[in-house]
Design brief:
Layout lengths: L3 E4 L6 H8 L13 E2 L3 E3 L3 H4 L1 H12 L4 E7 L19 E6 L8 H11 L3 E4 L8 H9 L8 H9 L6
Parallel strand pairs: 1-3, 1-4, 4-5, 5-6
Antiparallel strand pairs: 2-3
Bound molecules: guanosine-5'-diphosphate and magnesium ion (MG).
C-alpha cells in the first residue's frame, strides 16, 4: 500500500478517515502531534491553519510518503486551501472530500476548492457511513508508477501538467 500524508484543517476528518481506512471503529481522538503510521501520516489541523507550519510541513513530510492527501470536509463553510500546491510538492497530490453524507454537505463547492489547489484526483468519502472508503483503499493499494526520467519530467512541466 502506498504511504499517504494527510493534511487539512482541524475537524476536516483526517483521523476518522484513517480509522475507516484501517477498518477500525471510528472514535474522536484529538491529534496532538504528527503520527507516522505504517501507511498513513496524520497531522494536527493546526499545521495547515498556521502560515509558518503549513507549507513547511507539507514539503518536509512529502519526502516520507508516496502521495499527499488534501482533506476537506463537505460541510466546511469556507476555504482555507491554497491554490496551485503541486508547484511546490515533489509527490502527487490527491484530494479527499469527507462527510459527503452530512446534511450540510456541498460537494460541488468543495470539489472546486480541491481542483483549484491542484489535486490530480478527487475522492468523495464518508468515514462514518463508509461511502467511498473501499474505492480510496483500492487506489492506495495500486503500485507506485515507474520512476520518470528527467527528460519526461521536463516535457510534462513544459505543458504545465501536474502529474510529474
Ligand atoms: N458524518 C461524518 N462525520 C465525520 C466524518 N469524518 C469525521 N467526522 C467527524 O468530524 C469530527 C472531526 O473529525 P477528526 O477526524 O477528528 O478531524 P481531524 O481534526 O481532521 O483529524 C469528529 O466528530 C468526527 O466524528 C465523516 O466522513 N462523516
Ligand atoms: Mg486529527
Amino acid at each position: 500500500m502506498r504511504k499517504m500524508y494527510l493534511c487539512g484543517r482541524s475537524e476536516a476528518g483526517k483521523t476518522t478517515l484513517i480509522q475507516a481506512l484501517k477498518g477500525e471503529k471510528t472514535r474522536y481522538d484529538k491529534t496532538q502531534y504528527v503520527n507516522t503510521w505504517d501507511i498513513l501520516i496524520d497531522t494536527p489541523g493546526e499545521y495547515y491553519e498556521m502560515k509558518s507550519l503549513a507549507c513547511k510541513a507539507l514539503y518536509c513530510y512529502s519526502f516520507e510518503c508516496d502521495l499527499e492527501g488534501l482533506i476537506a470536509g463537505a460541510d466546511e463553510p469556507f476555504c482555507v486551501l491554497v491554490p496551485g500546491l503541486p508547484a511546490c510538492l515533489n509527490r502527487p497530490l490527491i484530494g479527499i472530500i469527507t462527510k459527503v453524507d452530512s446534511p450540510k454537505a456541498n460537494v460541488p463547492m468543495v470539489r472546486q476548492w480541491l481542483e483549484a489547489a491542484g489535486c490530480s484526483r478527487i475522492f468523495e468519502v464518508d468515514s462514518i457511513t463508509g461511502r467511498g472508503i473501499q474505492e480510496l483503499r483500492d487506489f492506495l493499494e495500486l503500485p507506485n508508477p515507474a520512476p520518470m526520467s528527467v527528460e519526461e519530467a521536463i516535457a510534462l512541466q513544459r505543458q504545465g501538467l501536474p502529474e510529474w
